[in-house]
């Protein structure tokens, strides 16, 4: 028997379902909804122009970390951090090759934030789908 009270199903070790998982499945969507409702409050600081997806990034990072540790026994969060670094480096090289000498960190952050949000959101729900598949069909 696995030390985390798991059960064996067709040769695969599957952790038992915990009700906390439902919170992790729904938390990113709830945070995005709350951030969309509070959008006017996000731009009250003149120099900071936050988008709702900027508020959801830390939540997605936490969900990816907790779900990946729960399912794979190791964290995928370092992979997410490497993805952020690669996207940032790719953008800097793009700016350099196209002759954009003066670019701001805010512009760089915004150009990385939106595609990264999509990748994180898809990755998080891929983990959720994998978990549901392993619970019901494995």
Q: Strand fraction band?
A: under 5%
N-end to C-end Cα span: 17 Å
Order of helices and strands: EEHHHHH
The biggest sheet amounts to: 2 strands, antiparallel
Uncertain spans: none
Strand order of the largest sheet: 1-2
Residues in helix, %? 55-70%
The chain-level structural class is mainly alpha
Number of helix segments? 5
Radius of gyration: 19 Å
Summarize the structure.
This protein has 138 residues and is mainly alpha-helical. Helix content is 70%, strand content 4%.
Task: Provide structural commentary.
With 138 residues, the chain is mostly helical. The protein has helices at residues 20-37, 39-42, 52-72, 77-97, 105-136, and strands spanning 7-9, 12-14. A hairpin with a 2-residue loop joins strand 1 (7-9) and strand 2. Helix 3 runs parallel beside helix 5 (105-136). The two termini are 17 Å apart.
Entry keywords:
mainly alpha; flat; two-stranded antiparallel sheet; 138 residues; 5 helices
